[in-house]
Amino acid sequence: MRMILRAVQRSLLVVCALLALTGSHVRAQAVVAVNPPPADAFFREADIVEAVLSPSGHRLAITTGRGGMRVGLFVIDLATAGRPRALAQYQDADIQHVHWVNDDYLIFSVTDYSQGSGRPDGWPGLFSVRADGGRVRTLVQRKRPFITDGDRGPSALEWSHLLLSVPNRPAASPGEEVLVGQFTLDNDSTPSNIEPLWLNVRTGLTRSTAFKEPPGVVHWIFDSQGEPRLVFTKKGAQRAVHWRAPGRSDWRLLVQGDLLEMPFEPLAVDDTGQLYVLHTQGPEGLRVLSRYDTERQAPSSQPVLSTPGFDFMGELLVAPGGGPVVGVRVQVDAETTVWFDEGMKRLQAVVDQRFPGRVNRVSCRRCADGDAVALVQSFSDREPGQWWIYRAKAAESQPAWQAVARRMPGIDPRQMAAVEFQRIRARDGRDLPVWLTVPKGVSPGQPAPAVVLVHGGPWTRGGYWAWEPMKQFLASRGYLVIEPEFRGSTGYGDAHYRAGWKQWGQAMQDDVADALLWAQRQGLASQRACIAGASYGGYSTLMGLARHPQLYRCGVAWAAVTDLSLLLTGSWWVDDDMSVSGRRHVLPELVGDPRQDAALLAAHSPVLLADKIKAPVLLAFGDADLRVPLAHGERMRAALKSAGHEPEWVVYPGEGHGWHLVKNQVDFAQRVERFLARHLQAPQR
User: In this structure, are 654 and 511 located in the same domain?
Assistant: First the structure.
């Protein structure tokens, strides 16, 4: 499967006759530089973080840290193509989650990771600012105030409020209100009993929604105009979803289940009141998108959209100003957009012709008026991303296409490696998806040293057809990067996910080994291979060295689970953020019961298998990690040292479950580069 186009064509099945696939994804030839880019080219902050069109399409909001120390908010007047106007930028916080409320007002939140990802700065608050400048108003206070806080005024809400919805109103009849939710923290320190309020972003005043919701609400779904349609509740291990039909004020139970299983999952509601849900079909239990049949009180038997070989992962698209669903943005191996609207189909075709072989994400304003203005985010496996403005009817003084910015201008796509998607067979016959990041010159018969990069989670999808810094960094150093979607991964059907239950270090680990063995049989990977990963991927790295020592010359494990007993039961002496319900109801099913499966867990706990690990190991941890506390690393380090194989060791102060500070990301990448070069003896470049 050497071309993404063929994979997309095979994998995307549009069941509804009105839908049509637009766009394709074709790999272009890569050119690897003689001198690869330095590590900081891959891990530096992006120039553009967010870009959002105003409701009228006359203005563009961007967040960027370029030219300053922190990420700030700027607005560009597209009619005059003038310089960006700075609206808000701070010395001690970064702006994120920008939304247009109307053409005159924006809202945003802030965060501060300047001391590392493991030192959270509390709830991010909510702020508003006029698009033409002016003082920032604090709508919701941060839990920890920062130095350059906005104008709070007498009506600023306490930190225990979160943004729920920004209504999608027509540009001709804008509003000034958004929906926020006042919450309490439950025993797991997560928001619960969320009660919605209307909040005016200009005045900071609130009013009641007069909705009488069921108790224990943890999530809301509104239609695009702010009408509440669904509430999600949780009590202990039980979950439920309640539905409010158009024209009704009462709620009725729609579906219920436990933390691990629901008959179906509501996704969204359009402005006609049509409910869309996700449910599984077929022997592999692949998730599909269907309308909810109110008469049958079940998902429709005929899906709106299914994606053979993949679970449906995507979002419904509604036109600016609201209305029915006009399209679906969906992930198969690559992202694609299925438009129902004929005008949007034509626009997508224009964009795809301009940028062939890429994912082209289109956000349009005035689409139905003949003078459409579109923001296009174009990216690929080699290109981190570019933003363009397209005008269907450009004035004489304006070009039809206007470049906005590149996400990471220091990356030359010609130097990047191709990302390919394969499906192979595991040793027991199970279908096993595998991602390959392939440097130039690697083809069957020309094997390269390999790094098996194991994703974290593990109950998540690991790979996508998109640029990602770590695998591109490794490929730039001449390594074939192999990323298996081992059983237990999500995104490939319920059967694949459940096949990984209680298989840590067992069949899940065999899948990782089988991906490498397949690449070696294909002549892509040489016998020189190392294994690497973070979190669960770090666990798998250590288990791979213990279970399959003949396959790997070394291992790199960061933020790694090493002690299954500590993971499952916790400790009075070790702080972590594992929820009570997770330890009580989820981990025993997915990993193992601490008492009933004690022998199984001990046999697959790396800290107890240190004497079996002979290959060199690089261990890295954040000293403020609450998901996988530093104790995991310290115990593993001590065990390896006792076994006579002391690892290389680094701890990053202030960092949590992954590195946020660029200096730490670069330092770690350079350590990995030196470590792999020593043990894989990669060719010098």
Answer: yes
88-121 pLDDT, tens digit each: 998 888 999 999 999 999 999 999 888 887 766 6
Q: For residue 284, which of 484, 430, 459, 464 has the smallest C-alpha distance?
A: 430
Residue 3 clears pLDDT 80, i.e. is over it? no
Query: Collapsing DSSP states into helix, strand and coil, what is residue 67?
Result: coil
Question: In this structure, what CATH number is given to the domain that contains residue 470?
Answer: 3.40.50.1820
Shared-domain flag, residues 506 and 583? yes
Residue-by-residue DSSP string for 53-106:
E-TTSSEEEEEE-TTSSS-EEEEEETTTT-PPEEEE--SS-EEEEEEESSSSEE
The 3 state secondary structure assigned to 247-283 is CCCCCEEEEEEECCCCCCEEEEECCCCCEEEEEEECC
* Beta pairing class for 335-339 and 359-365: unpaired
Instruction: Report the alpha-carbon distance of residue 129 to residue 132 in Å, rounded.
Output: 9
Q: Which of 35, 1, 33, 11 is nearest to 419 (CA)?
A: 1
Instruction: Classify 132 in phi/psi space as left (phi over 0), alpha (psi -120 to 50) or beta.
Output: alpha
For 315-361, the pLDDT digits (tens) are 999 988 888 899 999 999 999 999 999 999 999 999 999 999 999 99
Rg (alpha carbons) of the chain, rounded to whole number: 25
Q: Is residue 242 part of a domain?
A: yes
Angle between helix axes 469-476 and 662-680 (nearest 10 degrees) is: 40
Task: Tell me phi and psi for residue 331, to 5 degrees.
Answer: -100, 120
The alpha carbon dihedral of 467, 470, 476, 478 has a sign of negative
Reported as a pLDDT band with limits 50, 70 and 90, residue 27 is: very low
Contact 167, 174 (CB under 8 A): no
Cβ-contact 517, 486 below 8 angstroms = no
In DSSP terms, 88 is beta-bridged to 73
For 39, the domain range is 4-47+148-406
| Alpha-carbon distances of 153 from 135, 200, 222, 362, rounded to whole Å | 12, 13, 29, 38
For 582-621, what is the HEC assignment?
HHHHHHHHHCCCCCCCHHHHHHCCHHHCHHHCCCCEEEEE
In terms of Cα–Cα distance, which of 317, 217, 218 is closest to 270? 317
Per-residue burial over 639-676, b = 16 or more CB atoms within 10 Å of its CB, e = otherwise? bbeeeebebbbeebebbbbbbbbeebbbbbbebbbebb
Nearest residue to 69 via CA among 99, 92, 100, 53: 92
- Does 393 lie in the same domain as 258? yes
Torsional class of 247: left (φ above 0), alpha (ψ -120 to 50), beta (otherwise): left
> Is the peptide bond preceding residue 196 cis, with omega within 30 degrees of 0?
no
Same domain, 464 and 490: yes
> Is residue 534 a contact partner of residue 558, using CB atoms and an 8 Å limit?
yes
- Verify that 389 and 493 share a domain, yes or no: no
Q: What is the DSSP letter of 361?
A: E
pLDDT at 104: 94
Alpha-carbon distance 283 to 55, whole Å?
44
What is the bridge-based pairing of β-strands 555-558 and 525-534?
A: parallel
Question: Could you please report the per-residue DSSP string of 1-41?
Answer: ---HHHHHHHH-B--STT-EEE----PPPP---SSPPPHHH
